[in-house]
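A note from the maintainers: we've had questions about how concatenated examples are separated. There is no special marker in the raw files; a new sequence line simply starts the next protein. For clarity in this README we add a label.
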Amino acid sequence: MKFRLLSFSLFLLSIAGIQAQSPSHKTLDIDINKKGAGIAPDMWGLFFEDINFAADGGLYAEMIKNYSFEFPSPFMGWRRVQEDGAMGYHYTKPHMDESKNKKYLQLQRLNDEGVFGMSNEGFRGMAVKENQNYRLTFIAKVAKGEDLAINAQITQGRKVLAETRIEKLTDDWKEYEVMLNASETADGVNFRVILEGEGELDIDMISLFPEDTWMGRKRGMRKDIVQLLADMKPGFLRFPGGCIVEGFDLENRYQWKNTIGEMKDRGTMINRWNIEFAHRNAPDYFQSFGLGFFEYFQLSEDLGAEPLPILSCGLACQYNSGEIVPLAALDEYVQDALDLIEFANGSVDSHWGAKRAEMGHPEPFGLKYIGVGNENWGPQYIERADVFEKAIKAAYPEITIVSTSGPSPDGHEFDYLWKALTERNAELIDEHYYKSPEWFRNGARRYDDYDRNGPKVFAGEYAAHSTTEKDALKKNNWEAALSEAAFMTGLERNADIVRLASYAPLLAHVDGWQWAPDMIWFDNLDVYATPNYYVQKLFSTNPGTQILQITENGETLAGEDGIYASSTYDENTKELIFKIVNTNEEAKAFTVKLKGSYKGNGKGIWQELQSDDLGVSHNLKEPKKIVPVEKSVSVQKKAIEVSLKGQSVNVFRLKI
């Protein structure tokens, strides 16, 4: 009997030993004393492009579509209001000055009965919030008649939610500003300008903004959207794109000088995404440039982010017209780049620095980067990039130039550009990848073998496009976000090569999108962040200053057994930060051993982002299905014992 009991005890001990050394349990090592290359303080940033109604109708809080009647169809967004026996007409007439605002509206009222005026539908509708003020501005003059007045209204059907009356209109152009206070929260509302009295009124630049904008600025940005950006603590802001930089032809390219100064001098232009996608045509998609280069620089400053403008190199989008400027005619484009640097950094005594000061910012913006071209390719790009580089470096040798490697992360054009740019000692090369989640998971070692003495990389546009989504609206689901997190550990491990990185696109209106997936979605009333946003935020708010290696048996983890990991040290906070992504369905147990001079208090913070459902995504009604959960973690004898849930992203911070 004793023999049997002893045998059974030995059997249990042997099973325990097998379990203790089970291959499902991993031991990872971090040597705190072996600090590697420095990480750029601005590594994780934001990419902004005016696609998906991201500017007008989105980040830029203007509520009136076609506010200055400059669309090719001058009444697009507007309709005449003629009710209860009112009689009248509406026309556009030309301004007789040199501004880019060429047209204005004339309202001609023939009697004093009923209701007559114009109504604006906004950007896929409008929305107001209860007890919030909305600032209405416009210019107007009386062309004919006496005692004319305007009744400005926000309405939902026949119901008036806000209104105010403007009297004592003059015979000369004058600017007016009034507030409308909303009586309730409502979506799908309209703005109406109603003319009272018989006669003719000229009116233009009819603009409506919430008073509660970001930083309380007039003609400002949507506070709720910018707050999500600020919460990410981005290192840089790239603008204004993207393919919008190139335009479908050169006339349609983005020209920064048309986006500064007073609104009447900014003009209006068709947005290149207006006609790009047959399945999502947007004939009412234009750019007012109310969100222009000054505002981009100002937003960068607000966010504590480095501004990173991208300019046309004289090549229109090669997927569209591919129109090209001859080298002999490139001076205008090069001068635009030099003038932009002066606008951002020049003294108030310089021509363009004075323009910046006139707009309310005498201090320089401190521009460090400038991008030449976007997704261009071939020898035509290299020829033009050479011209830009010589001119910029001659005038501003301290500016870092970002070059493009084309629209794809591999293939003939990519290889050609990398070789040509490396031979020219390019500083920073912009790579783009919109690929499947599997590609991202398999690409975590992409930069392991890049030449450490060659150009640095800007991962300027990337997003995983889920294979579980079959239609054009590819949702921002957990499969995509989890795979991006796995890939991003590879970017972080190779931060000596990958200088900057940003997800793209950034914003999309739920009723006005052309491209999906996108990081943040909104309608006219609300906004929500996607799982991809929370992945980006975990990395951008936990960056570190130096690389530390986290290894298993001396090897880094980039997909082995479905596990991805990276580690950094933060010199500013004296913290160890490590990230582990478990792409397996099942949980995984880990022992993380800390080698070197750990003298912490034995406690740390653990942020976990996880879902068992790879297809789960957010929407306006359910905006937070997957959000980070904060836990505590303890260190005992310089080791951390954790079990990481399946399909999870985990970030640990420890004072060392």
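[label: protein 2]
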Amino acid sequence: MEDKHTMKCYVKDYPRPQFVRSNWENLNGTWEFRFDDENVGEKEKWYAGFHGDREIRVPFTFETKMSGIHDETRHDFVWYKRELQADAARLEKEDYLLHFEGSDYITKVWVNGQFAGEHTGGYARFTFNITSLLKDGANELVVRVEDHFDMQQPRGKQRWIDKNFACWYVPVTGIWKTVWSEYVSRVRIERVKMTPVLSEGLLELEYDVTAPEEMLDGSLYAAATVSYEGVLINRSLTAVMDRHVRTTVNMFLKNNHKLEWAIRTWSPEEPNLYDVEFELLRGHEALDKAGSYCAMREIRIDGPNILLNGHPLYQRLILDQGYWKDSNMTPPDEEALIEDIDKIHALGYNGLRKHQKIEDERFLYWCDVKGMLVWSEAPATFCFTDYAVEEFTREWMEIVKQNYNHPCIITWTPFNESWGISQVETKREEQHFTEAIYHLTKSVDPYRPVIVNDGWEHTVSDIITLHDYEEAGKIFKARYTDYKEEIMTTEVYHSGSKSAFANGYAYKGQPVIISEYGGIAFNNDDAGWGYGDKVNTQEEFIRRFDEITTAVKEVPYICGFCYTQVSDVQQEINGLMDMERNFKVDPAAIKEINERRVGCWRSYM
């Protein structure tokens, strides 16, 4: 797997590939497990001497085959236990951090019977410093996770009734991403926010530092060493006078042979990445060190165009829900993530819309390395209450902050098809909520486009995205060519029921993308579903795919598309692959159609 395209910081299975330290332990594997259907565990103090009645393979949830349990019935309270080994000599000098990449939904942790912390939310990473709770040798780690069929929780495609329905699937309860630990210096870099400023050839760095007050006297320095393919680009050294430090790095590479300066930009065709090493120095001593990488790329809106590095970008996207047959939302292994990216490329797509899920961060790493554009979409709530607003806002901000540095992410998509904001077309409080999330996202990331709300009933949105599952290319082309003015108003455009804009909002010349279409399924005796009529043969599939995809490309003001979808997901059988990732049709034929140029394309990236 490791080849010339991987970064120096790359470590197989490392869960946080943009901030890599050496002293870590993967805690996945066999844990003790127990259901707590009567919710008596805390009252009976299971966290003090817990004994499971079965085993589970973490990070797979009990609903999956790969967990070793495979029970798809509802259990709202679950408990886990495993042993941790700690070194007293190290604990005297270093902190021991316990990381959960994802645990759905309310997670409580105890170490040796003592409470370590609690986190709410199913999709973002969270960390507990458990140093003071550890002893030399064996330690008992106990985890309780609480989840519900609560439509106020950001849940994405997880069903909230006992059976699958429409496009909602088996839920994910408990730990579903990697659990790991690391020893770290007590004086350390907590996070670095990296922002490329391509127009100036600069990389902006914002350090968050953990250090005692008495060390913020100029004796600490944050260092960043940037290189490209082994050639030193620059090194910055910044005095740490506060726990938040800002600086910039000049990213121009001098070519002594041609006497010119150059920036290596990131794009799908040339996903150039720079290696970065971060250090926290005191004198000549490195108190903390982490490996990372970055890219120089710019994504911005220019009237009806989306520009990547100053050039119009035509986006050939595919909807990716990230489900696997035997493990649901948890990838079976890192190779499965790489396989998906490679097969999406083989189908002729230059990007994907990760739908209603925050994927394993190793997936984003490989999208960075392989040049796959990503739209990052929030898992939706499904009702509008004060609690839903609070939960969504907090978790979405955690997600944006966690994944900010990945150059593959070019768009944030916090809302989809008015899910959780079902009356956004007319209700001002729901419109205010979408505006608030838009501006909060922009306050953290003013550079990437933000879509509100994908599919229809947009409020404030940098891109206008429309969902249309019309089967016939001629009808589609006529609709978007002859009725553009009507579509780009609050008039009905979709299936006679939805409008492009919420009341009080209007089209202001933004780029337009068809962000869902297609969804073609093969006829299989009514088992499962796709959009529109099912097809009977591969030839019929390719003919229909060609007709509708070509029609989308022939509409001159549309600057991209997103086909539904990568693979089948449980009862939804409209993937270009089945759940085992077998192609249903010749990928070369799909690639040729996707990449075929038509006269009105503004870019062929």
